[in-house]
Amino acid sequence: MSPVAATPSPVAVASARPARAVVVLGWREGRRMLTGPAYLVIVCGLFLTNGVSAFQPGATAIPGRFEVHEMLAVLLTYGALATLFAASLVATSARRTGAESQFGAVPLDPQLRTLATGLGVLLGPAAVASLLTLCLAYVERGIGPPLPAMLSGWEYMQLPLTWLGAGLLGVAAARWLPWPGVPLAVLVGLIAWTAWSANQISGERSVGFLMPYLLSSQDTFGLGTSSSHGHLGWHAVYLLGLCLLALGAALLRYRPLRERAVLGFGVLAALLTASAAWLQLP
Amino acid sequence: MSHTIIVDAVGKTFGRTRALDGVNLDLGIGVTGLLGPNGAGKTTLLRMLATVLAPDAGSLRLLGRDPADADDRVEIRRRLGYFPQEPGFFRGFTVFEFVDYVAILKEMTDARRRHDEVRRVLAEVGLDDVSGKKIRALSGGMRRRVALAQSLLGDPELLVLDEPTVGLDPEQRLRFRDVVSRVGEGRTVILSTHQTEDVAALCHRVIVIDRGRTFFDGTAPQLAATAAGRVWVADARSPGAQVAWRNGNGHYRNIGDAPSGAEIVEPTIEDAYLLLLGDRALGAAA
């Protein structure tokens, strides 16, 4: 242990600017999500399982355009699952580890810390998904002749929104239902809702458009969720609305803190979601 | 003299347990020790002073502000450092990363200045040479020093420490006393402890609390003086002693109503504490 020595006079460094602190914390939380075990395991698993096809007889040693396209498409389609777990792990880490005991007396209250975690989903996994989507678009359209099955602009937009929405849902679940197994239950619920919606769409029932996941015109995502009649752009806005509702739900956990602002935000998000849900219908 | 902490008839109930019952305090600059057995209400009181818990009855004024008001509470927390009774950590973080994380929660947004502050507090508690180590690799005593370091971030005017010396070895305890005594100059420090030696070494004022009520409020010498004439040594345990134990030199130290002719000795704070709380204090001393 280093000897006790005179230390320089402390410098007051607190900025008393919670908004800036939320942003700084958001970056930190986003980084934690991206380097967390759940995210790395699932993402690597997706790469490996999809990359196995590269070792099939006849496959070349270096993945070509098609293989890269497939890996990106699979990663983007299912990466939201990893985001749900990664965000939930980060959102519950203070409670699980007992670190919350040291955070109880800091100026950044739990609601602002929740906002920062939500921002972390945007700045971390959702930003990565956006970059991967750009890569996917480049592979589909920027190299050589266009591939036979390509996404449209509205379908590209949906991809990072599913990562964002799954992450924010993970944060909301962590705040309202802080028990083990909840992220898995949320995931099962999400899959069940999506499967039911796909069934409704294939039966040409409009309620299916309320699905909380990717919707394409030609089942481009391979989920069985397609419709040639709906408006994919409005479905992307609908997904954005669901993201905002999840964030609002997470923040509402700390009523009555900033109650008016959070409820107002929630009402706007609900209006946006409802409008987009209606406008996307064929 | 401006009073940093004013506690007025504060009460708190958990279920059917009355954790605090009409506690009154008036504290200013300096180091105050909070002594009491397990379940006395020390942690409940300290959590209120740290703005983590609200009272059911009475009122608080901390640093001239009302913690019941949301805006005031934030302002208090900007000038407050808190060491909880059972600090938890993100064990995958390094020492530096964790303290830096808490610094962000304390709204230190300028990275360079924040890192300088983190290095300062880590040096203050003697952890500068292990700042890159994972917290899970540290001993319990070193982890408590990490918790102490985060409580010192931002040079708080009010420092609330809940049993900070638990698990510290003698050298670490000496360093802790040095840190607290320096921090206590010009600031308000309140710490709870079972170690009467820490109180004797550090605190200019002592509050003894039990069953949610204050039993003593004064200086350390005044507390010791309450046992004057009631501590004696003998070759055996005296029948009239409230508490007695065999010390290192083979004699028995007795506390209670001394028989005539007993060899009266100078009382310590511990003697007075045991005498004050009787069997309840024995539960903590055992």
Keywords:
heterodimer; A: 282 residues; mainly alpha; 9 helices; 0% strand; globular; disordered N terminus; B: 286 residues; alpha/beta; Rossmann fold; 3 domains; six-stranded mixed beta sheet; four-stranded antiparallel beta sheet; 13 strands; 34% helix
List segments of chain A where confidence is low: pLDDT < 50 over at least 5 consecutive residues: 1-12
Task: Please name the CATH topology of the largest domain in chain B.
Answer: Rossmann fold
* Structural class by sheet pairing and helices of chain A: mainly alpha
Gross morphology of chain A = globular
Low-confidence stretches of chain B: none
Structural class of chain B: alpha/beta
Proportion of residues in extended strands of chain A: under 5%
Number of strands of chain A: 0
Oligomer: heterodimer
Question: What is the overall pLDDT average of chain A?
Answer: 85
State the fourth-level CATH superfamily of the largest domain in chain B: P-loop containing nucleotide triphosphate hydrolases
- Any idea what the CATH architecture of the largest domain in chain B is? 3-Layer(aba) Sandwich
- Fraction of helical residues of chain A: 55-70%
Q: Tell me the series of helices and strands of chain A, N- to C-terminal.
A: HHHHHHHHH
Using only CA atoms, what is the Rg of chain A?
Answer: 21 Å
Q: How many separate helices of chain A?
A: 9
Number of domains of chain A: 1
Number of strands of chain B: 13
In brief:
Chain A is mostly helical and 282 residues long.
What is the secondary structure topology, with strand pairs?
The complex is a heterodimer of chains A (282) and B (286).
Chain A: H1 18-35, H2 37-51, H3 65-97, H4 100-103, H5 110-142, H6 153-176, H7 182-202, H8 232-252, H9 259-279
Helix pairs in contact in A: 1-3, 1-5, 2-3, 3-5, 3-6, 5-6, 5-8, 6-8, 8-9
Chain B: E1 5-14, E2 17-27, E3 30-35, H1 42-49, E4 57-62, H2 70-78, E5 80-83, H3 95-105, H4 111-124, H5 140-151, E6 158-162, H6 170-183, E7 188-193, H7 196-202, E8 205-210, E9 213-218, H8 220-225, E10 231-234, E11 241-246, E12 252-256, E13 263-264, H9 269-277, H10 279-285
Parallel strand pairs in B: 3-7, 3-8, 5-6, 6-7
Antiparallel strand pairs in B: 1-2, 1-4, 8-9, 10-12, 10-13, 11-12
Helix pairs in contact in B: 3-4, 3-5, 4-5, 9-10
